[in-house]
Structure formats: structure tokens, C-alpha cells
Amino acid sequence: MERRGRVAAWDNAAPGFIGYVFKSYVRVYTESVSLDTGKSLFMSWTINSFFIAIGKVLLTLFFACTAGYALARLKFTGARAVFAFMLFSMMIPGQVTFISNYLIYKDIGLLNTPWAVITASWHPVRFLS
User: Per the UniProt record, which residue ranges are transmembrane (predicted)?
Assistant: First the structure.
């Protein structure tokens, strides 16, 4: 098996489990390079992952706190209906909304952006589950 001129062999298996794991990280860091620039892609993947995770956490915290406070403390007409609707919509699987989410992101120009990934699972009801 050959990948970009490198032959898969047993030389990447250092003695012991810990050595094998860390050797794999080194291998991923050195072998995942951009074909255009020759730079390692590992750090950009890591930074993108942290950016997306932090964005999702902050967005979820904001909307969960505001919605939870409104439902728990504020008395308004239809509060029980809103809560019942939220419970009902939590029973709808996320796969049902894939096509509609795709069409919305396409219309507003967010396809292939980190913001689409951050807000992809955004549904006001899902933040309380």
C-alpha cells in the first residue's frame, strides 16, 4: 500500500502502546501536508476544530440561558403552549431538517463556511435538551 510515495511498514510501531500512539500523532502531523504549499494541515485542522467547538458552546449557552430563564421566571400568555411545542419539537430527529437547512444555508451564502457548521444544529428547542 503506497500513499504519496510513502510505503506502509512496521517501522511506525514503536515499542509499547504509548510510543505507538505518539508516533501516530507525529505521523499525522508530518504526512498531512497541503499539496499546493507543502505546509502541514494539522494545526489548521486543530484551530478550526477549536473555533467551531467554542462557537457552538457559546451559542448554546446564550440561547439556553435566555430561553431557560424566560420559561422558568417570566409569566406570559401561552407559556405552557410554548413549552409543549418545545417538547414536541425535541422529538423530531435532526435528519428531518437536513434538506431545509441546506437550502437555507445555500440561499444566505453560508455553504462551506465554519458558520454553517456552528449553526447547523442550531434549533432553539435543542438547546434545552
Answer: 50-71, 83-105
Check if the beta carbon of residue 114 is closer than 8 Å to that of residue 55.
yes
Q: What are phi and psi of 105, to 5 degrees?
A: -65, -35
Q: DSSP 3-state assignment of 2?
A: strand
With the CA atoms of 55, 58, 63 and 68 taken in that order, what torsion angle do they form, in degrees rounded to the nearest 10?
150
Task: List pLDDT tens digits, range 65-110.
Answer: 988 888 888 888 888 888 888 888 888 887 888 888 889 999 999 9
Partnered with residue 2 across adjacent β-strands are 7
CA dihedral 74, 120, 95, 48 (to 10 degrees): -130
Query: The dihedral of CA 112, 92, 129, 72: what is its sign?
Result: positive
Q: For residues 109 and 13, what is the distance between their CA atoms, to the nearest angstrom?
A: 45
Q: What is the pTM of this model?
A: 0.66
Helix and strand numbers (H, E) in the chain are 5, 2
pLDDT tens per residue, range 4-32: 555 555 554 445 566 666 777 778 888 88
